[in-house]
Amino acid sequence: MIRDWIELTKPRILQLNLVAAFGGYWLASKWTVDWGALLWVLLGTVLTMASSCVMNNVWDWKLDQRMDRTKDRPLATGRLNKWSVLVYALFLGILGEMILFMKVNVLCGWLGVLGMFVYIVVYTMWLKRTSTWSTSIGGISGAMPPIIGYCAFTNEIDAGAVLLFALLFLWQPAHFWSLAIRRVDEYRAAGFPLLPVHKGVRRTKLQMIPYVVLLLPTVVLIYSYGYAGTVFLTVSVAAGIVWTWHTLKGAASTNTEKWAKTNFLISVNYLMVVFLMMIVDTAGRPF
Q: Burial code of 22-32, b = ≥16 C-beta within 10 A, e = fewer?
């Protein structure tokens, strides 16, 4: 039973975004860390993200029953009651926002509200069911954690916050479409108008390219503006080139399943590597 309640929060998503929030704070602080403040921002961020994920489960439970990947989720199988889960989502969200507003700062609180609104209302309730733009625009919510972490220290949105937003916003479409390509038949059966469903797999492969390519100048700018050092730049550019090369290969790939699986794994590792390098090689405290 406890495992079902945890599963509703989508722990793997939370883990990746906690790393991003931690990286955002570390980038801004340049190793001058207030550990108490960092703990509060991570807790507030993870609770608001968990609330959004649980609400996504509440809204999608019928559609989840149509997909092999999601048919065993707690609400899809009926193991948990929908109204109890809704209360759970509201509790997590209210607690998370109280922490961000009261223990971090007002700016982070509003960024949390924005992230929840985009993910729950704009993405889950609206675009996910109506438009191929759902993945791109929904990426706004996924880009909030590092900005919240960053603004927890700076209490302002500056160039560093914008670049962190760009990094996560550009990363998400290619990452998600790699998964969607592998599950295109399931998404079609469930009625989700994703890009590979409506425009085809080849079009999706081509549309992934500009997102991945634009990550290269983004990490260069993070270095150029003095937020991170040369080790960050070298490793991040190298990782970006590897991902770009593999993404470009997609158009000519005949084994789409294998290509998409590898591209998805590359995307996950790319994000982890970039933020790890950002943390250990923040400008002012080189590797």
A: bbbbbbbbeee
Q: Which segments in the chain show pLDDT lower than 50?
A: 286-287
Geometric angle at alpha carbon 118, from 14 and 143, rounded to 5°: 50
Residues 6+ apart with CB under 8 A from 80: 4, 5, 8, 74
Number of H helices, E strands in the chain: 15, 0
Phi-psi domain of 69 (left: phi exceeds 0; alpha: psi -120 through 50; beta: other) = alpha
The three-state secondary structure class of 12 is helix
Query: Which residues 6+ apart lie within 8 Å of 7 measured at CB?
Result: 73, 74
Structural domains of the chain sorted by starting position, each given as residue range(s) with its CATH number in brackets: 1-157 (1.10.357.140), 158-287 (1.20.120)
Is-contact 49 111, C-beta < 8 A? no
What local confidence, expressed as pLDDT, does residue 286 receive? 46
**Distance separating alpha carbons of residues 271 and 265, to the nearest angstrom:** 10
Q: According to the model, what pLDDT value does residue 283 have?
A: 63
- pLDDT reported for residue 172: 95
73 is written with which tokens?
């989720």
SS3 assignment, position 246: helix
Give the C-alpha separation, 86 to 146, whole Å. Answer: 27
Report how far residue 173's alpha carbon sits from residue 158's, in angstroms, rounded to the nearest whole number.
Answer: 24
Q: How far apart are CA 246 and CA 22, in angstroms?
A: 28
Cβ count within 10 A of residue 280: 17
Cβ atoms of residues 107 and 158 within 8 Å: no
Query: Cβ of 34: how many Cβ atoms within 10 Å?
Result: 13
